[in-house]
Description:
Order of helices and strands of chain A: EEEEHEHEHEHEHEHEH
Oligomer: heterodimer
Strand content of chain A: 15-25%
Radius of gyration of chain A: 19 Å
Order of helices and strands of chain B: EHEEEEEEH
Shape of chain B: globular
Radius of gyration of chain B: 12 Å
Mean pLDDT of chain A: 80
Helix content of chain A: 25-40%
Largest interface: A-B, 28 and 20 residues
Distance between the termini of chain A: 42 Å
CATH topology of the largest domain in chain A: Rossmann fold
CATH class of the largest domain in chain A: Alpha Beta
Largest sheet of chain A: 6 strands, parallel
Helix content of chain B: 10-25%
Amino acid sequence: MQRVLPLYVSPAGTGLRCTRIRSVYWVPGNPPPVQCHEAQSYSLWLKKWNYTKRQELVNLSGEPQTSLGSALLVLGCPQVPVQTSIALYLINRLKKSGFVPVVAGNKAANSLLVIADPDRHYLGEVMDLDRAVTMITEKKRDFDRCFVFIHNDAGISYAATMGAISKAKIYTLVYGEHYEDLVKNIDFPCTIIAAKAVHNPLPLKKAIEEVTPWVA
Amino acid sequence: MGCVESMNYEILMRDGSFKECREYIKQHFTEYIDVQPGFKIFDIHTIGVPPIAIGLDRDFIIFPYTKPCHGTFLLRMEDTAEAARLRTFKK
Lengths: 216, 91
C-alpha cells in the first residue's frame, strides 16, 4: 500500500468543482488516484471507475467483450421532450452492445443529460457540438456510428454535415410533429429511423428497436 | 476570430430553411462559390446540406450559419482578406 499525499481528484468530464482531499491510500492494481483540474470527490470518481470497468468488460451474458467501436450522438435543440429520453435509452443499448457512446450537443441539450445522470451511470463523454464538428473536420477524431437527432431543418443540416465530414455510418432519428416532411428532405445516404413522437418516446423507441442500430 | 457573436454581421434571413438560404444566395448574388460542409469561413466550420453556396459581393461574404435551436441564418459580413481568400476557390 502506498500513501499519496494531497491531490485533486475528479470523475473525468463532470465539470464539477475540485475537491482537495487529505490523502489517498493506493494499492497497486486498484483504481489509480488521479490529479486533474476538475473534480468532485474520490469516492465518486472511484464509483465511476468501477462502473466504467464493469461496462467495458462485461456484456449482457456476463462474458468479457471488447469494444465494437465508438458512436456519436448528435443532439438537436432539446425543445422536443423525447430527445433526452431516447438519447439515454440509446446510450444504454449501445453500451450493452459494446459501443462507446459520445454525446455532442449544445449547452442546453447536454445539460439536460448531465443533470439527469449526475453519477454518470449512463453518460460517458459529453462534448460541445461545434467542437465535435471541428475535431471531425480537422481529422483529429472520428466515430464508427453517428446518430443525429432531427426535429427541424437544422437537424438535417447537421446530419448532412456529419455524412460529409465523417466516415461513420449515419443514422438519422427523425421525430416531432412534422417528421414526415423532414424525412422527405433527407436526400443523402443514411439509415432513417422516424416516428411521430413529441412527448411520448415509445413510438421512436419502437422504431429504433426495429432497426437495431447497435448490432455489429 | 472565432465566435460569430463577436463579429460585426448583418442578418439577411433568419429562421429560414437551408434550401431557402441557398436559393437566396444564387438568386441575389452573381458571384458565389459552392463548398462542402466543414469548409472554414472566419474560423467557423460551415454546417449544411452540400453543396453549400457562399455569396461574394465586393468585400462582403454572404454565408449560411446554422444553430440547432434557431435554424439557419443568412449572414453578411465584410472582410477584404477573407473575400479574397474565398475567391481563390472559384473554379
